[in-house]
Amino acid sequence: MISKLPAHLAPLQAQLAQRVVILDGAYGTLLQGENLVEEDYRASLLANHESPLRGNYDILSVTQPQLIQRCHESYLAAGAEIIKTNSFTATTIAQADYALESMVTEMNQAAARIARAACDNYATPQQPRYVAGVLGPTNRTASLSPDVNDPGFRNVTFVELVENYTMAASALLDGGADLILIETVFDTLPEELPRVMSIGRLDINSEGLLLLTNDGDIKRKLELPSTGWLRRYRVRVNGMPTEPMLAPLRKGITVDGERFQPMEVTLDRQQGSNAWLTIGLREGKNREIRRALGEVALSVNRLIRVSYGPFRLDDMKPSDGEEVRARIMREQLGLESSKPDALKPKRRPAPRRDRTGQPPKGGKPGYK
């Protein structure tokens, strides 16, 4: 624990005591909008790298630093005062998926340097800007076994996690980070708490109808294409779509070697430089709408899920919620319905009492 802040962070500490300080926003959605391909992630530096790199946003701090700085500066121009580094998965554990463990220190240092340069471009004596070095989660957990047949097995140790985060934090500070931000923490929940899962997840840049359940069977069933439930979205795109442009989406389109199933697409109206579409799909995720539309030269700037099977947004107000009993859903989906509605935590039986109102002597409370 640091007992005394560095002098240059004293103004930040004072501001936090008086008002809300503005943090930047998401970077994944900004980078998705760039429609990057495999070669963009590699650049010349990793042209011959052994593993695919598409989707590894953190390596872009090394291979596409100008792009990352442009993202930072878009938030600074909008008024952000603290900028997060592009280092969410920059640990040796997470980067093992891309065979880039040896570049983790370089990735963190580069991410911090880029954020530092962007902040310095916008900082003034009256309004300093700060860099938050991001430590994100790994793709492993030290509290749960990945092997259902061996509950005691762990694929990572506490010491390994400490080493990973120490390496990343040190490199972020070396690169110019002012503070360290632990962005996401996950762990197993106590048995008595309900597990809440999202069905057909919405990403951070989408809105609309969200279905939540704590029944894993229901979640899996609803997300299977064989269930046949149509997910319908209202989509605003930048551009002037025509029927010939939309035809490939209706037939099924291939993007970067991945085949997307046919979509239901309706052109609703043109509104200046934007157009509104209604799109329905039975397989895939809402982020694939963005990828598919990008393939036909249309950029999505708003995406609203208005229905998921029989569930409809209709006139629901923001933050409204309606409960559907798990038992009813399981019966409608043809799942065995012996499971109780699970949103209620388990209750322990109350202790028996004798005629005097006292618990019985001997045994445990609730013992029968």
> Hey, roughly how much beta strand do the residues contain?
15-25%
Secondary-structure element order, N to C = HHHHHEHHEHEEEEHEHEEEEHEEH
**CATH topology (level 3) name of the largest domain:** TIM Barrel
Architecture (CATH level 2) name of the largest domain: Alpha-Beta Barrel
Name the average pLDDT. 83
What is the number of beta strands?
A: 13
Computed Rg: 25 Å
Class of secondary structure makeup: alpha/beta
Instruction: List segments where confidence is low: pLDDT < 50 over at least 5 consecutive residues.
Output: 338-357, 362-368
Question: What is the CATH C-level name of the largest domain?
Answer: Alpha Beta
* Cα-to-Cα separation, first versus last residue: 51 Å
CATH superfamily heading of the largest domain? Homocysteine-binding-like domain
Shape: globular
Keywords:
alpha/beta, Pseudouridine synthase, 2 domains, six-stranded mixed β-sheet, three-stranded parallel β-sheet, globular
Describe the structure.
By secondary structure, the chain is an alpha/beta fold. It folds into two domains: 174 residues, Homocysteine-binding-like domain (TIM Barrel, Alpha-Beta Barrel); 136 residues, 2-Layer Sandwich (Pseudouridine synthase). Helix content is 30%, strand content 17%. It is built from twelve helices and 13 strands. β12 and β13 form a beta hairpin. α5 packs parallel to α7 and α7 runs parallel beside α8. It is globular, with a radius of gyration of 25 Å. It starts with 9 loop residues before the first helix and ends in a 36-residue tail after the last helix. The C terminus is likely disordered.
